[in-house]
Give the backbone structure.
Amino acid sequence: MDEYAKYLEEKKAKPKGLSTFKLKVIGDVLMFLSAASMTLVPRFLGAPSTDDMGVLTVVVLCEAISWVAIPIYAWLLYMGFDRTRSWFKYGMRLFILALVCEVPYDMVTFGPDHLFDFRSQNPVFGLVVALVVMVLLDAVEDLKTGGRVTLSVLLVIIGLLWDVLLRVGQSQAILNIGSLTLGFCVIYYYLHLRENTMMIPAATLGAVSGIAPGFGVYATRVVLPDGARPAVTNVGVRPTVSSAGRAVIVEPWILDYRGDLYGRDIRVEFHARLRPERKFPSLQALRDAIGENAAQTRAYFAAKEGL
């Protein structure tokens, strides 16, 4: 065999695509962008708001690009699950890592004074939940078709509920990273032998998960146990009352409602955009704007109900 033929054989035998190490590096860089959007960017460029579209654009781009890390880490988790000799040891290492990451995650997301904040858990817990679900899916694989399908669907639903209840990676109240991670892992688990087919549902899941309202104030309805009520909802970083500009929040003000809803999950339906989010010169100016938005919301729903 001459040198050129040997070169062709070696090139053919070389695995295609990115190595596991390269995927980890890419994932780490993407996760760094997410952390930078909440720490370094506000510190050096100022708090993001619609008054400074340059900073706001940098923050949004860093956060949006970092979401590409979710399918990467989901794939690495599936590969680890598929190749590990002991899923229990693998899971314990992930669980310990999740515990270690919780305090830094809470401090970055909610501020340095929040060492433990249960409004959201770090995304590593999403990896733990996804691993447990895949282990259980593997355990029911030998059952008859009817029982296997029923139990598999039930296991995935339970995993999703855990992600929702723990609010895994839901620092922005928009994207539940835990649920999305589990979704990708389930796709990889069942379709890993059909790469072309696997890419279609994976890409669809990623695209749909990125649909979210932009920064601004909206006329919305909040669905409660006793019915739906009109509300004025702000999506953004509250630049007038918060100088840190760390977390993006969705904050509804339910009109003409008396009650305590803190700590409860609610559904918010977006109907109309009233104005962009902006920084007001004073709290009184902010109150006046909110009062005007409340009047606009009432008029909007009154006109809609009158049709």
Notes: The chain has a mean pLDDT of 82. The first helix runs from residue 3 to 13. The CA atoms of residues 280 and 286 lie 6 Å apart.
